[in-house]
């Protein structure tokens, strides 16, 4: 088969929260990227908001790798925090043990969503020396003060405080997860070190026994793994203030050369156009969703919205994502079946010009969309059209198995798999296994068993033989209503999850 010449990859443009505009991404060290993403506070199962963030940054990580960068990706675990301590007390469990347990659950969720493992996944409890050293530097530089074992950062010592969030210092709330402490010199001052309280985990420090505040953890760990100056710092929009604003202030106070080139933030997740929260009863964990939908369907659902826009969680959109995933894998499966007899053949023939142009155009649009601030939503729409083209070519191939068409389908199949790999949609399971997994999830959502569906199919077959088309149509409609579509073929009737490729 003829090969197309390799095309130069486009430059990535990404929106920088600090400058409030899209910028051409230029790493500090040519060919290498340092990226830090704020991880979970591990005290419960992760929710869809976490999936939103870590799928978005996984796609960035994968695309940077595709562009040829050597990426050092750091995503932390907060395993020392007020929320963890409260939950541990409720369960009468050691806080570090509790957090470790939920870290393992987080790993499972990320594996299910096919989020690539970061280069480093540090935990706060393993980095106390780095945290204490950084606090000491901030105090030595006159930017923090000790009050009876509690150390506070002085925001008045940070001349650029508020630059990331756009807040005026006078407008800022206290920058931590507790009530304002009257001992603070400025209400916006925030804790770097908290003195030990009975029943809480603690570590020894120059200011007495205690534990770190929320923000200092990420400053210390990012500096430890990436240095004080690195390329990308990311997280959800809810972290812009106070967390990331305070990170910048304390990092610069510890080291004047501290600098992050690009701050990237993903949008929120709403449920039925309302803010998602436990109190409203519209709060969903990743595990709850993946008990009903394939994890890759959730990934597609998230990718169909641009990472900076809010995602509206709805079962309708999850159904569409699930249908897209089934169509994707069914197309590849059909292609595999059609091409399998010809895999070993050496086909030195000219590829149809129309197919060459189709692949070239699609891949160009793919790179353009991804390099323009990661427009995965556009990619997913274009990808659907490519899958439709494969199915059209498969129909032609079944009628006449010409050698150029074998080459065309082989190239189309490769392009689909290459893009699926970049987007984190290519499963390590076989095509048949993924299709079966999708059928199993569809059965769960329908409330029916395989045996019950096959019984309904048998009843319909009998009705059709008896020309009882009213009963036949009713059974089909009843199954359609619960998300199952029937396929009438010469060999008999089978079922698949309800399909909609629009």
UniProtKB/TrEMBL annotation:
GO molecular function annotation: ATP binding; cysteine-tRNA ligase activity; metal ion binding
Keyword ATP-binding appears in the UniProt entry: yes
UniProt keyword Aminoacyl-tRNA synthetase, yes or no: yes
Assigned GO CC terms: cytoplasm
Gene Ontology annotations of biological process type: cysteinyl-tRNA aminoacylation
Domain tRNA synthetases class I catalytic: 26-322
Enzyme Commission number(s) from the entry: 6.1.1.16
PANTHER family: CYSTEINE--TRNA LIGASE 1, CYTOPLASMIC-RELATED, CYSTEINYL-TRNA SYNTHETASE
Family assignment from sequence similarity: Belongs to the class-I aminoacyl-tRNA synthetase family.
HAMAP family linked: Cys_tRNA_synth
Protein name: cysteine--tRNA ligase
Source organism: Acorus gramineus (Dwarf sweet flag)
Taxonomic classification: Eukaryota, Viridiplantae, Streptophyta, Embryophyta, Tracheophyta
């Amino acid at each position: 088969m003829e090969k197309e010449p390799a095309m130069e990859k486009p430059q990535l443009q990404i929106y920088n929260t600090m400058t409030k505009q899209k910028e051409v991404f230029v790493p500090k060290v040519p060919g290498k990227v340092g990226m830090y993403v704020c991880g979970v506070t591990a005290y419960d199962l992760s929710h869809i908001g976490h999936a939103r963030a870590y799928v978005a940054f996984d796609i960035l990580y994968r695309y940077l790798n595709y562009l040829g960068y050597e990426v050092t990706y750091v995503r932390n675990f907060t395993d020392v925090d007020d929320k963890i301590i409260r939950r541990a007390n409720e369960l009468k469990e050691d806080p570090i043990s509790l957090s470790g347990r939920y870290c393992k659950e987080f790993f499972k969720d990320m594996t299910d969503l096919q989020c690539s493992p970061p280069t480093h996944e540090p935990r706060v409890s393993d980095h106390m020396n780095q945290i204490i050293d950084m606090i000491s530097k901030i105090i030595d530089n006159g930017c923090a003060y000790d009050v009876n074992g509690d150390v506070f950062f002085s925001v008045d010592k940070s001349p650029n405080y508020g630059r990331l969030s756009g807040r005026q210092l006078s407008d800022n709330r206290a920058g931590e997860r507790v009530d304002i402490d009257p001992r603070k010199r400025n209400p916006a001052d925030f804790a770097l070190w908290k003195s030990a309280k009975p029943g809480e985990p603690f570590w020894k420090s120059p200011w007495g026994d205690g534990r770190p505040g929320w923000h200092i953890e990420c400053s210390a760990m990012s500096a430890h793994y990436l240095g004080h100056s690195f390329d990308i710092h990311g997280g959800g929009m809810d972290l812009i203030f106070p967390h990331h604003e305070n990170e910048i202030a304390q990092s610069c106070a510890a080291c004047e050369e501290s600098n992050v080139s690009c701050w990237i933030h993903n949008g929120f997740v709403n449920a039925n156009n309302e803010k998602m929260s436990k109190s409203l009863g519209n709060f969903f964990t990743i595990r709850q969703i993946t008990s009903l939908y394939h994890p890759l369907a959730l990934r597609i659902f998230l990718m169909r919205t641009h990472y900076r826009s809010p995602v509206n969680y709805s079962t309708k959109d999850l159904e569409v994502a699930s249908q897209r995933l089934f169509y994707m894998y069914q197309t590849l499966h059909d292609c595999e079946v059609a091409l399998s007899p010809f895999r070993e053949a050496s086909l030195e023939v000219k590829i149809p010009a129309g197919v060459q142009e189709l692949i070239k155009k699609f891949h160009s649009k793919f790179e353009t969309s991804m390099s323009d601030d990661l427009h995965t939503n556009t990619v997913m729409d274009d990808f659907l059209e490519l899958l439709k083209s494969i199915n059209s070519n498969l129909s032609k191939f079944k009628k006449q198995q010409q050698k150029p068409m074998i080459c065309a389908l082989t190239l189309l199949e490769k392009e689909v798999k290459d893009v699926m790999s970049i987007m984190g949609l290519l499963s390590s399971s076989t095509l048949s296994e993924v299709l079966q997994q999708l059928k199993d999830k569809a059965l769960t959502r329908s409330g029916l068993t395989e045996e019950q569906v096959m019984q309904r199919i048998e009843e319909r077959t009998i009705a059709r033989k008896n020309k009882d088309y009213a009963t036949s149509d009713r059974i089909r409609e009843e199954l359609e209503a619960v998300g199952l579509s029937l396929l009438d073929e010469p060999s008999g009737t089978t079922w698949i999850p309800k399909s909609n490729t629009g």
